[in-house]
Structures are given as structure tokens and as C-alpha cells.
Amino acid sequence: MKRQIGRTGISVHAIGFGAWPLSNVNRPSEEQALEVIARAVEAGVELIDTADSYCLDDNDFGHNEGLIRKALDAIGVSDEVTVATKVGNVRPGGAWVTRGRPEHIRAACERSLERLGVETITLYQLHAPDPNVPLEDTVGAMRDLQETGKVAHIGMSNLDLDQLERAQREARIETLQNQCNPWVRGDVDSGLVERCRVMGVTYIAWYPVGGEIGHRACASHPVLRELATRYEASPYQLLLAWLLGLGDHVIPIPGATRVASIQDSAKAAGLQVEPADLEAIGSLA
After folding, report:
1. Is residue 27 in a domain?
2. pLDDT in tens, 46-82
3. Domain extent for 186
4. Which of 7, 3, 74 has its CA nearest to residue 244?
5. 137-174 pLDDT, tens digit each
6. Domain presence at residue 280
7. Facing residues of 252 across strands?
């Protein structure tokens, strides 16, 4: 199953890979991280999501981008995988602090280009809006980078509908990346997921199975366990299938620190679940 990224003409496997777990406080060894990325690509993954701020703190800044480059270079598929990176956060002392000033966006882009080893970032996403900087100024800086060829396509993350529409007036926005799963389904209930479809924006769902903590509860949920037995699938595949069922413009990006996890997730693209069962999954909360 393939899905388009906005109106870019880029087609990718319906399940992407969120690389954040490879750089957080519970990160695996570098050897294991590189193996996870390699096996994700082998399983069919064609979209990898990263960020300059996926790291422990500012002393570790860019860790995840460096891992992605090293892994893709090692297996020789850098031109076959779409790498989406994000900008707009810094990590002083391990905290998450938004930084949306145009000068920061421009400087951060240069550093991401170097770490990823590319001349153009395929998909550059704003990690989160900075409450101290007009969103229009931040998006304008990203548009300028696009016009100079340093960025091919622009995406947003952690925005509501009003912010997305404001951003869309400043530049062509191809993706919106927000948290979404049956327990965090505000974007579904508010109509934002559907609005993205109308706007031609791909909706990228982060923490699609609940993140590091939530996914453990998912595995033991009685409804998911019963459905998993019936469909001969994992509970996680069922959660991903629910997201895929929200529309052809939705791409979940599950994370993983083990090869088996991302291999399992990739199989969700081929899982056919009855509409009534999808509705039951969506009603778990």
C-alpha cells in the first residue's frame, strides 16, 4: 500500500518510521539503532521522520539526523527513502524549548543539511509553533529556504486547524504531523484529519500506538486481544490499521528500538479490517 505526500508527487509505503526512540533517554546502542533503520527499509518503509532536536540535550544535538544518514549511507538507499526532519526546538538541559525566530530556522537548516549529507531537505517540518514569534514569520523563513532550493517541501507539526490555515497562507504546506491514536483522537473528532484531506495535506500520525508507555497497555486491552486473535495480527497492527482507515492521506509513523517491532508495524499496511471492527478500535477510549 502506497500513499502520496501532499501534492509533492512523492509516493511512500503507508507505514513510516518515527526515529525518535533511537535517540531518547532509553536509546539502544548505535549498532542496534542502525540495524533497526536498515531492517525498517528492508520491510518496505520509505518515509523516516527525524528532527534536529531528537537527542538528549543541546550537547547531543543532531544525534538522530546523524544516525539516519549513517544508516542510509551504509545500506546505499539514501536516494530511495524520504527523510523528513523537523526544526523549531532546542534542548537546553534536556528540556524542550521552542525556537521559531527566522534566523534560528535558517541557521538550523544549514546544520541539518550538513548532518544529513544532502543539498536539499526533501520535507522540512516545523516541530511546534513558538508562542513568542508570529507563525507567519517562522513559516516565511521556511518558504525562503524553499525558494533558495535548500528545502523541497514544507510541513507542520503540532498545529491546530487555525494555525494550519495561517501557515497555508504563507507557503504550500504538504504535511501536518500531530499525535493521534484511539486514546488521543482530538484531531479526528474536531474534523482536522478530514480537513487535511480536503486541503491536500497529508496527516502524519505520531505516537500512533500510544508511545513508549501507552503501547504496553494496548497489548493487553481485551478488545485488541480478541481482534488480534481473529485477524492473526498484533494489537499494534490493528491500531495502525485504524489510522490507515481514516483516509488515504493518513500515514502513521510508529517508532521502534527493536527490529521485530518495526517489521511488525510495516505489515499493518496489508491488513484488511472490517469497518465494524475499525469502529470498535476507534472507540477504545
Report:
1. yes
2. 999 999 999 999 999 999 999 999 999 999 988 899 9
3. 2-213+239-272
4. 3
5. 999 999 999 999 999 999 999 999 999 999 999 999 99
6. no
7. 205
